[in-house]
Amino acid sequence: MTTIDPRLADRRKEVAEDRARHNIKRLLRLLIFLAILGAVVWLFLSPALSASSVDLIGVSSSRANEILAQEQVVAGRPLILIRQGSVEGRLLSDPWIKSADVNVSWPNKVKVVVDERTPVAWVETGDGWTRRAVDGVALPGADTPDATMAHISLPMVDDAGVYESFEVIGALEFVAALPVSLSTTAFVELREGELWASVAGYAIRLGRPVEMEAKALTLAALLEENLTAGSEINLIAPTNPSVGPPGRELTPVGEEEEDGDGGSGDNSTQP
After folding, report:
1. What are the pLDDT digits (tens) for 116-151?
2. Which residues contact 62 (CB under 8 A, 6 or more apart)?
């Protein structure tokens, strides 16, 4: 019968006990780590680090409230679950919203600021009439022009080409820079490669779609003078405008002219 040296047996016992103690320590460290991790997760998901309220600023016409609800940016939502970039992207999908900023402020504040577009004119493209902001974006709503805003008729441009059309953007910049009392009377169209406008009964030669804000401000200043009714105003060079006798006039949308037989004509430009 084989016998084991007592010293070797003691040594094996010590090694086994050391390994057991080491394993127990590793297990304890793991349990402590999991406990700490669980506590951290609980803390970040707890009411202490959740939105006590959501402050939404700048909303008038957009669906910002609806979009925030869909993205679960609501009171009680843990801040760690709010993805600012994703929420901002969803907000910008609304054509009314020009810019959006979602600011998460620890421990429990959420502030959302949106800058909304405003319609400045009815624009006729090859796809019909739409209300558009100064940057050319079509805004939801009615598709029949009324007298509340300027009218811009450029049917040679389709909707897909609006953002690349200098004429459309230039015309929008022009009417947006006019005082409201003048912009609501404005009608802009393209004639022989130039932009022309009718404003408050005056025919305005705008020329190329450049310096449109300056042209609008110059026109507003000129119309404060006692000009002859129906005068033609040349604003090709806004720093050097000229006023001539009545010439060709534009027919604003909604107004009709009688033809020689007493019938009503259309809304096109009259030579």
Report:
1. 999 999 999 999 999 999 999 999 988 899 999 999
2. 91, 94, 96, 97, 114, 116
- Residue recorded with tokens 């009545």: 246
C-alpha radius of gyration, the chain, whole number = 35
Rounded to an integer, what distance in angstroms lies between the CA atom of residue 23 and that of residue 27? 6
DSSP labels for 1-57? -----HHHHHHHHHHHHHHHHHHHHHHHHHHHHHHHHHHHHHHHHSGGGB-SEEEEE
Structure tokens at 9: 């047996």
Burial 201-223 (b: 16+ CB within 10 A, else e): ebbbbbbebebbebbbebbbebb
**pTM for the model:** 0.77
115: which 2 tokens? Answer: 């800058």
3-state secondary structure of 239: coil
